[in-house]
Amino acid sequence: MKIERIFKKNKGFARMKEMRESGIQTRDIAFAVKQGIVEKIKPGLYKLLSYDFDENEGLAAVCNSDKKAVICLLSAAAFYELTTYIPSEIYTALPMNTPRFNITYPPCKVFFFKGIKYEFGIEEVETGSGKIRIYSKEKTIVDLFRYKNKLGEDMALESLKTYMRRKENKTATLADAAQKLGMYKKMEAYIKGSM
Hints:
By secondary structure, the chain is α+β, with helices and mostly antiparallel strands. It has two domains: 2-48, no CATH class; 57-194, no CATH class. The protein has eleven helices and eight strands. The strands form three sheets. A three-stranded antiparallel beta sheet has the order 1-3-2. Strands 4-5-6 form a three-stranded mixed beta sheet. Strand 7 and strand 8 (130-135) form a beta hairpin. Helix 5 packs antiparallel against helix 7 (137-146). The longest helix has 13 residues, at 153-165. The termini are far apart.
């Protein structure tokens, strides 16, 4: 089926525009939704239900829904296995003053970051469900400390301790991220205490 080929080429996701350019009519897409072949993620974005997604399907759906969406905080910590906590929503960062973030599924908790707090530490990671934009481990830990009153100090500490136990930890990179994001003084004792 032509419609399925387009989705498979795009790791299970496709935009209305791409499908139309491939000669698929709007009524064909509506029929595929009605038949349970594809699901609407947001206006203009669909996913193929039979695609063999990995556990990062929700993260990929969020990143496909908005080119500026970045996986952050608890979702990023869970992705990197810095925490044992599995959030029920996908924690998503967008630049301040972004127009309404419109996504039907999966459930998201949106944070609006300003300037360097949004721009710093964005990485692109290839997953079995497609490419995702996610903050680096170091930026994630700094953000968890920045939001520790909202999300819990235990989440920030667990992520920091897990990071510091790993062979690939980069204390200097973490300290640099804390410095750039204006959090070094608040985190210094924690960083030194975890070494």
